Amino acid sequence: MNILDVGTPSKDFKDWTSTVVRFHGFANLTTIRNEGVESPGFSCFGHQWRLRVYPGGKGDSEEGYVAVQLGNCSDTSIKISYGYSVRDANGKEVVHEEPDTVKFGAFAGNAWCAFEFAKRSKLMTLLVDGSLVIEVRMKSTDKSAMLFIPSNPINKNVLKLFMNEETADVVFEVGGEQHAKGRRKKAKSSTSFHAHRNILQNCAPTLYEMCKSNEEGITTVSITDVKPETFKHMIYYAYGGKLSDEDLKDNAKDIIDACDKYGVVHLKLEAEATYVESIEFSMDNIMDNLLYADSKNLALLKEAVMDYIVKNKTSIIGKVSFDNAPGHLITDVLSAMARGEQPSPEEDESAKYVKMRVGTLRKMLDEKGLDVDGSREAMIALLKEHA
């Protein structure tokens, strides 16, 4: 809204932003209680807002009063001061709502309402060409909304180095298997991935060890046990890239296998979580998933399988063979059973770890800066060690 000031404005309205909303044909709007009319969205302080008027009142409004409600339609919360004003045809302010400072939560479900904004009979005398004109005054008290501070660009800058041939000091030749054919060997074409040792050192330590060299120049490393597309996902993640849900779901096991071998731990756990969410357990696949989880230290998958076993134990008995299951898995079965029990007076302090979910154990380890990859027993032992 364009405002021309004559003289010095009072400090009460300094830095305030005004938006005028016109409700046309106000006299003909419904006066049924709790039925309102909503304005189109408008922008202020980087958020989207909507103003809703209830000509017949809302909730506990007194009879004959109009309610006015302001709602935040953005997906982030904000703290502001706000108020309303209605002027007559001559521009004189007749009705105003005293400014109030509140926090608006995300989306319009956390809107704030003036239940008794003004009597409808009074507002009817202030219509301008049949329209109720409400000025919405807003002032942000949220420093983050008033002062935009760009985020640290390190992630974007590192991602720009992905597959950068000019600055790379290592090249991975992926998928170049050789197949014997008579006396000759026919080489399968490989895909080249340019990378940087310094980035791989912490994000993919096993790959770093393979390309670590004291020699100057570019080192070439051959990778023959990973599909090029899977290797690309792994390296892209190491440079700070975010894989799509579809890529994770479609390639979960390939990504888990590659990351487990080459030390890209966090992507391995992300792919594991996606696999657990997408898999539907059955008596036909629980043993395969259990053995797979045990071989790759997939504690979350193992926990999900154990939960399924405990929940369906009656149906499983006699129909699923556990002959090939390692003996140490009995601890995981007991942990799954213990999670459903109430704590007993005999339990010591360390017993709390046994009943914790894998997600909780990993979160605690991550907060302490400790290794989050490992079996349930290894995670508990590490937490006890650093308690």
What's the arrangement of secondary structure elements?
Elements (H helix, E strand, L loop, with lengths): L16 E7 L13 E2 L3 E3 L2 E8 L10 E8 L5 E10 L5 E12 L7 E8 H5 L7 E9 L2 H4 L7 H6 L10 E5 L3 E4 L2 E4 L3 E5 L1 H7 L1 H7 L7 E5 L4 H11 L6 H6 L1 H11 L2 H14 L7 H10 L3 H13 L1 H4 L13 H9 L12 H5 L2 H10 L8 H10 L2
Parallel strand pairs: 10-14
Antiparallel strand pairs: 1-9, 2-4, 3-4, 4-5, 5-8, 6-7, 6-9, 10-13, 11-12
Helix pairs in contact: 4-5, 6-8, 8-9, 10-11, 11-13, 15-16
The overall pLDDT average reads 85
Tell me the number of helical segments per DSSP (H or I, 4 or more residues long): 16
Largest sheet: 5 strands, antiparallel
- Strand percentage lies at 15-25%
Low-confidence stretches: 1-11, 179-184
The topology string of helices and strands comes to: EEEEEEEEHEHHEEEEHHEHHHHHHHHHHH
Q: Count the E strands.
A: 14
Shape type: elongated
Main structural class:
alpha+beta
Helix content: 25-40%
Ends distance:
59 Å
Rg (C-alpha, Å): 32 Å
Quick overview of this protein structure:
It contains 16 helices and 14 strands.
Structure description:
With 387 residues, this protein is an alpha+beta fold. Helices cover 34% and strands 23% of the residues. The strands form four sheets. Strands 2, 3, 4, 5 and 8 form a five-stranded antiparallel sheet that branches. It starts with 16 loop residues before the first strand and ends with a helix.
